[in-house]
Specification:
441 residues, alpha/beta, UDP-glucose 6-dehydrogenase, six-stranded parallel β-sheet, oxidoreductase, EC 1.1.1.22, 18 helices, eight-stranded mixed β-sheet, 14 strands, elongated, binds uridine-5'-diphosphate-glucuronic acid, 2 domains
Length: 441
């Protein structure tokens, strides 16, 4: 099938590449000529495990190409995906400027194309958009004389760091349509990915749009819930890791997404929780739970700093701390809304010298902090002379370090384990002062 993807950000590029991999003829469009130039010469503008190889192979085999020419790509395509960014506006709403600009450009490109040629066309919104946006996209297309073009909502559920696997083996595919013909085109497109009896769920565009927000809201709620329980464990001398297991065996609760930490970050949860709160505000529904989830997370981002401050007390200014992990989670270079940034800001403000290491995100952090931080190429390099280590992101390489080497390198044997990756008993036996999240310290 001929597919055009508008927007070669994270979602657009993964979607386009995976659709090419399943044999479709995919053209990815972006209005940023630099991005297109990088992609045309075999590079990719983001870090995502496995993506570079997949882009290169599909480009080489002629199934995947890149162009700044939206009109030509749209005219040749049967399916047009809108996958541009929806950043947070000042009111907390999703900013739909890019989505609507693209919808208008698609309408402009298709207005002279006779209905039905070269087959039913469907414009599909992949971007996360507030409920009601697809209806507005349809209105805009109609205003350009393209009322015959179907509009569909098809939210994505990709996790950064595992996006290819998530696309290739989705738990489910959700599409929101007005006419069943549009759903059938999408069913055909996704059939290769649903061979293991994964469901293809058809609903209205409004329900599909809402599904995306409800999914992220539920996941964010789980994290704020476990973080709140962890903070209570800290105060009452219980260990959240045992509590987590104790509740997880109840199948109604389960184990997934209940790991406490320094708060959720990234480009999705913080923005989507704000957006759902904004949708409530517009409809006079206070959404108390969502506001609490958001507030708990804001406070959680300060928890590591509070533990550091409590430990060093008056001596904090002038100390040196090592930070392992800067990205908002492992296997990405993404630092948007990362808890590490909140911690770094608070440490610098308190007069602490900060030495950092991250396997992928250092360049992005350097863009913000320049020479205010010391950047170490290797994890152990960050520890030299430091008065303590804070593990902020649980990259796999931090899980089994050589504690004897660490003891030699650190000036003070103190570990703040922001992701509960170490065994508190073992570390204390080895002579470290250990602080976890909710480990009763
Ligand atoms: C999230 C969702 O998981 C995807 O399903 C969704 O498609 C995506 O947002 C999106 O809306 O596009 P992502 O932001 O890539 O994906 O990252 P997650 O793996 O979900 O992690 C989000 C944050 O929650 C991270 O900061 C992570 O450290 C934190 N987290 C996650 C915890 O603190 N504890 C957990 O148990 C799980």
């Amino acid at each position: 099938m001929k597919v055009a993807i508008i927007g070669t950000g994270y979602v657009g590029l993964v979607t386009g590449t995976c659709l090419a991999e399943s044999g479709n003829d995919v053209v990815c469009v972006d209005n940023n000529p630099k991005k297109i130039a990088v992609l045309q010469t075999g590079g990719i503008p983001i870090y995502e495990p496995g993506l570079q190889e997949l882009v290169a192979r599909n480009a080489r085999d002629g199934r995947l190409s890149f162009t700044p020419d939206l009109a030509a790509a749209v005219r040749a395509a049967r399916l047009v995906f809108i996958a541009v960014g929806t950043p947070q506006s000042d009111e907390g709403d999703a900013d739909l400027t890019a989505v609507f600009a693209v919808a208008d450009a698609i309408g402009e490109a298709l207005k002279d194309v006779p209905p039905g040629a070269p087959g039913a066309r469907v414009v599909v919104t992949k971007s996360t958009v507030p409920v009601g946006t697809n209806a507005k996209v349809a209105e805009r297309l109609a205003a350009k004389g393209c009322a015959h073009v179907d509009v569909a909502s098809n939210p994505e559920f990709l996790k950064e760091g595992a996006a290819i696997e998530d696309f290739m083996k989705p738990d489910r595919v959700v599409v929101g349509v007005r006419r069943s013909e549009a759903a059938e085109v999408l069913r055909e497109l996704y059939a290769p990915f649903l061979r293991t009896e994964r469901p293809f769920l058809v609903m209205t565009p409004e329900s599909a749009e809402m599904t995306k927000y409800a999914a992220n809201a539920m996941l964010a709620t789980k994290i704020s819930f476990i973080n709140e329980m962890a903070n209570l464990c800290d105060r009452l001398g219980a260990d959240i890791n045992d509590v987590r297991k104790g509740i997880g065996h109840d199948q109604r609760i389960g184990f997934q997404f209940l790991f406490p930490g320094p708060g959720y970050g990234g480009s999705c949860f913080p923005k989507d929780v704000e957006a759902i709160i904004a949708m409530g505000r517009r409809t006079d529904l206070p959404l108390e739970l969502m506001r609490a989830v958001d507030a708990v997370n804001d406070a959680q981002k300060r928890v590591l700093f509070e533990k550091v401050r409590a430990h060093y007390a008056e001596e904090l200014a002038g100390k040196t701390l090592a930070l392992w992990g800067l990205a908002f989670k492992p296997r990405t270079d993404d630092i948007r809304e990362a808890p590490a940034l909140t911690l770094i800001d608070a440490l610098l403000e308190a007069g602490v010298k900060v030495r950092v290491h991250d396997p992928e995100a250092t360049a992005n952090v350097r863009e913000i902090y320049g020479d205010k931080l010391h950047y170490a190429d290797r994890p152990y390099g960050a520890l030299e002379g430091a008065d303590g280590l804070v593990v902020v992101t649980e990259w796999a390489e931090f899980r089994n370090p050589d504690f004897e080497v660490m003891k030699r390198l650190l000036a003070q044997r103190v570990i703040f384990d922001g992701r509960n990756v170490y065994d508190p008993k073992l570390l204390r036996q080895l002579g470290f002062t250990y602080y976890g999240i909710g480990r009763g310290a």
